[in-house]
Amino acid sequence: MTPFSRSWTALLAAVAGLPDEDFERPSGCRGWLVRDLVCHLVIDAQDVLITLVTPADTEPTADAVTYWNLVDPPTGEDPLDALIPRLAAAYGDPALLKFHLDDVGSAAGRAAELADPAARVSTQGKVLTVGDYLSAYVLEWTLHHLDLIAHLPSAPEPPAESLAVARTALEAIVGTAFPAGLPDTAALLIGTGRRPPTADEESALGGLAARLPFILG
């Protein structure tokens, strides 16, 4: 199983196992309920499908690291951010949202498995190999898995392998390593501003603490 498949399969399984009442709980994405995050994952899965059938005939302009940009923290003014909660609420029954994610998400997973890693695709004005594009999404899936379970202590965590791959990706994107003693989950949550560091963690981070958070876009 590739890192993409491992992280995506784990995330889909975590959503499928949620009881209905958990969809009304907060997620790790500021201002979003779990249902809003799951709706966002449906759109992400659609993006994967669209990209995998958008071939490019020019040389790659980005890879799994440079696919990501460091951006300013969200202001809440992005129209898509406002659309997601309304769209998620329109589903009503969480079972419908689960079904849609499973349907589109399974298709995205199958398309990823069938795609030629060396083929080139275009997305967001960039050209990447399929392999690099799918590798970039391991970070996306792993961070959103952590967002999903932020307030759901009984929900399954991302696979250890996915956490390690995502941490390595984040360190490559920001151009620096987090302290070796900082667990992968903590590095991802603190590094992307999903939670503040404790006093001990801040001390271990040293000068890196002043650069936090790293917001990916």
Question: Could you give a quick summary of the protein structure above?
Answer:
53% of the residues lie in helices and 6% in strands. With 217 residues, the protein is mainly alpha-helical. Strand 2 and strand 3 form a beta hairpin.
Descriptive account of the structure:
With 217 residues, the protein is mainly alpha-helical. It has 8 helices and 4 strands. It has helices at residues 3-16, 34-52, 79-91, 94-114, 130-148, 160-174, 184-191, 199-205; strands at residues 70-71, 120-123, 126-129, 215-216. A two-stranded antiparallel sheet has the order 1-4. A two-stranded antiparallel sheet has the order 2-3. The chain is globular and about 45 Å long. The two termini are 27 Å apart.
Write the layout of secondary structure elements.
Blueprint: H1 3-16, H2 34-52, E1 70-71, H3 79-91, H4 94-114, E2 120-123, E3 126-129, H5 130-148, H6 160-174, H7 184-191, H8 199-205, E4 215-216
Antiparallel strand pairs: 1-4, 2-3
